[in-house]
Amino acid sequence: MAGERDEAALRQYVEDMARLYADWGFPRMAARVLMQLMASDTGYLTAKELSDSLEISPAAVSQSVRYLQHLGLVERSAVPGSRRDRYGLPDDAWYMGSIIKGNLFSAIAKLSENGTAAAGGRATPAGDRIAGMGDFYSFIQSELGSLLERYLKHREAIRQEMRED
């Protein structure tokens, strides 16, 4: 049974999560747009709805959704009978975003090999630090596929429990 929606608390959640994402280096406006979409019961919002609800300019919405689309975290679709588009989260937004970011992990690991060599190899302090970073991202990349598979099984188990209740 669904509880009553608390719009003020939901707005605060959107801002708090956006601030947290921004602290991690995610663009603040894009984080606000992402979290506003997350908090939407319809699952989709138009640029105007995003602009109005977040009190930001249409240009900020446009830039943010472009960034989020690039990451695979937002998809655009046409509003039937209108010239407007609407934006929403793909079903597997976090999964897809992780896969896309996974390519970043591989790139960092590969570039770290070059950096290690340029710093004089693992025997130097700088080379060892750079190699350590590369080792970390190489490990993350090697584990990402199985981690995401386990998550999908976990998510399906949760959904199955919900259907049984």
3D architecture notes:
With 165 residues, the chain is mainly alpha-helical. Strand 2 (75-78) and strand 3 (85-88) form a beta hairpin. Helix 1 (7-23) runs antiparallel to helix 2, helix 2 (28-38) packs across helix 4 (58-71) and helix 3 (47-54) crosses helix 4. The longest helix is centred in the C-terminal third of the chain and has 40 residues, at 125-164. The protein has helices at 7-23, 28-38, 47-54, 58-71, 93-118, 125-164, and strands at residues 44-46, 75-78, 85-88.
Structure, briefly:
This protein is mainly α.
Element layout with pairings:
Elements: H1 7-23, H2 28-38, E1 44-46, H3 47-54, H4 58-71, E2 75-78, E3 85-88, H5 93-118, H6 125-164
Antiparallel strand pairs: 1-3, 2-3
Largest sheet: 3 strands, antiparallel
Termini separation comes to: 10 Å
Helicity, in percent? over 70%
The shape is: globular
Order of helices and strands: HHEHHEEHH
Mean pLDDT: 88
Number of helices: 6
Structural class: mainly alpha
User: How many β-strands, per DSSP?
Assistant: 3
Instruction: Compute the CA-based radius of gyration.
Output: 20 Å
Q: Which consecutive residue ranges, at least 5 long each, have pLDDT under 50? A: none
Describe the strand arrangement of the main beta sheet, using strand numbers: 1-3-2
Strand content: 5-15%
Question: Which features characterize this protein?
Answer:
single chain, 165 residues, mainly alpha, 6 helices, 3 strands, globular
